[in-house]
Amino acid sequence: xxxxxxxxxxxxxxxxxxxxxxxxxxxxxxxxxxxxxxxxxxxxxxxxxxxxxxxxxxxxxxxxxxxxxxxxxxxxxxxxxxxxxxxxxxxxxxxxxxxxxxxxxxxxxxxxxxxxxxxxxxxxxxxx
Length: 128
Hints:
About 90% of the residues lie in helices and about 0% in strands. It is mainly α and about 130 residues long. It has one domain. The longest helix is centred in the middle third of the chain and has 34 residues, at about 30-60. The radius of gyration is 20 Å and the shape is elongated. The termini are far apart.
């Protein structure tokens, strides 16, 4: 799906949301979730293509695949977390959005811990 179609889906979702919010406000968040899910599915394919290209480039550069994998998964966590938090903010649930953002931060740091340990060991080895 190209950017024009994704933008059109976003605009259509926003217009339907505005209409449903006036008629049946209790269904408005479902419209946003549905439209956003369609856009995320469309973007997921592009993300997979990009991650394969990045992996190929890292192999050519001789970098460890594990580190690249950690970075790509962290990027995924950030994107999903931001998406979920934005939906919470749009539905006037800022406390839930803050909790989602905190969970994303903790998830990204936890995922990166093995890489941070390797850097710390390297630094200690260089100091000796």
